Amino acid sequence: MDDEAITRDLLPDHGPRLGAAKERGRADAYGGAHEAAQAVAGHDPEDAAIRVGHRDTELDRRLSRGLDEVNFPATGTTAADQGALSVKAVDDEGELIGGLSAWTWGGLLGIEMLWVRERSRRDGWGSRLLLAAEEEARERGCDRACVSSFTFQAPAFYRGHGYVETGRTLGIPGGAEDVHLYKSLVG
Questions:
Q1: pLDDT classification of 34: cutoffs 50, 70, 90
Q2: Whether 105 contacts 77, CB under 8 Å
Q3: Do 39 and 113 reside in the same domain of the chain?
Q4: Of 45, 72, 131, 175, whose CA is between 20 and 30 Å from 4?
Q5: Which domain holds residue 84?
Q6: Same domain, 176 and 85
Q7: Contact at 8 Å (CB) between 83 and 75?
Q8: Mean per-residue pLDDT for 6-21?
């Protein structure tokens, strides 16, 4: 099924409309801020629509640009301070043994995924991939790293490499939790 077929337009639902006297009272209480916001935005929020669907790569790009406009000034960083990082291990037949994908931003290494094929998991490949990523991150000026790992995945692996737990997200399917970990890359 294509994305267009499952996308739905939803009209805003603001609940029951207030009586005219209450509407005037609300406008007076807020000093007409609602109307002023509408005039600045150039449209009435009542006329807006919300679209729900599958992944929208154009929306993702737009949201990323919008967040960058906020995040860069707030953190004193620029687009030049961020980048993608990957580490890949292949065997002599060119088959993937495992890999790691991550990002760097303003001195922070953020590990997104680390995976090693099952038959190679006891051969130290996870450690090699992680250490290679940390070394590359240091070369890029990173002094700290973060990662999250579900309780059924590898939090113990990261703890064994000096990462410390900073918190958890509850409610992961199967009764699991998402463990957030941090490590200083200096020293």
A1: very low
A2: yes
A3: no
A4: 45
A5: 78-184
A6: yes
A7: no
A8: 42
